[in-house]
Specification:
The chain is of the alpha/beta class. It has 12 helices and 8 strands. It starts with a strand and ends in a 7-residue tail after the last helix.
């Protein structure tokens, strides 16, 4: 593959940041690697019971969000990956209104975990493309293959612990590879046994419950550190994308970052998308616009 498509975090949460970054990215492509582009921006507003992965953040008006992405032809994805939904949750007014708006506003998608919600979306909002969520914790390669074979999903995000299974990944067909979207910058403990339970706790919070769960993984109390993520055995570096994954035939790369703040998201975009000789210039242009929540 010749182009890496990045799927970026904070659709509602970082609207102000993207309203500055996107014009810069498209007006000054010489600042950025010519082998990469933006595939989508994902997220969910606060108080969405269908939400998952993280508790939703951001209150920005969805019409303005969609107008910004539409200006640049970027797909918007709703992160509706709650794994614990029941039939009574499907009628939620806010989530349905968002789906209606997104369906009529371009080539947009929904990141989903629940089979119940998937079938509901297919019947009610067939123009929204589904993405299989990393919250399914697909650590078994055969399970990943089966997921990529499903016609239901345009993309499948495996657990980050499959990122370096190069020999197995290279056995995938071209159509399977086209669906795989790697989570590049996960900071969580590689040996974590509680990842599903952790995501379920987030699902419960989005449903208004208070789960009895606390992360006990080594280093959890430090929170997210990009420097620590870079040392994770599952980390995909910018060099890995160029030298390993693109030549193997993989095009899609997810950058996590919801809830981390726009200053850190900028660091991700500088690292993954920006030529080293222009990183300071891009940083200055964004900082001087005063759009970063630095403190």
């Amino acid at each position: 593959k010749e182009t890496a498509y990045y799927h970026l975090p904070g659709l509602f949460e970082f609207y102000e940041f993207y309203s500055v970054f996107l014009p810069l990215f498209y007006a000054h492509r010489e600042y950025f690697f010519d082998w990469c582009d933006i595939g989508s921006i994902y997220g969910a507003p606060a108080d969405c019971i269908w939400g998952g992965g993280r508790v939703g953040g951001g209150e920005h008006d969805p019409h303005e969000v969609l107008a910004l992405l539409g200006e640049y032809g970027i797909s918007a994805r709703l992160t509706f990956s709650n794994s614990l939904l029941k039939a009574e949750h499907l009628s939620d007014a806010k989530c349905n209104a968002l789906c209606r708006l997104f369906e009529r506003s371009g080539e947009n998608g929904v990141i989903v975990h629940s089979e119940l919600l998937l079938q509901y979306l297919k019947s009610h909002y067939p123009e929204l493309y589904p993405v299989s969520s990393t919250t399914k914790v697909l650590t078994d390669f055969e399970a990943l293959k089966k997921e990529t074979d499903r016609d239901d999903f345009r993309y499948v995000v495996p657990d980050f612990r499959l990122n370096k299974a190069y020999e197995k990944l290279n056995t995938l067909t071209e159509s399977q590879k086209d669906k795989v979207e790697f989570l590049c910058n996960e900071c969580c403990y590689f040996g974590c046994k509680d990842r599903k339970e952790c995501y379920e706790a987030v699902s419960r919070r989005n449903l208004g419950e208070e789960p009895d769960f606390s992360c006990t993984s080594p280093g959890a109390e430090e929170g997210y550190r990009f420097s620590k993520a870079m040392k994770n055995p599952g980390f995909i570096s910018v060099g890995d994308i160029q030298k390993i994954y693109l030549p193997m035939g993989f095009s899609n790369y997810k950058i996590e970052g919801r809830g981390l703040g726009s200053a850190l998201v900028l660091e991700f975009l500088l690292y993954y998308m920006t030529k080293p000789e222009y990183q300071l210039q891009v940083r200055e242009e964004i900082y001087l616009d005063n759009m970063l929540d630095l403190f």
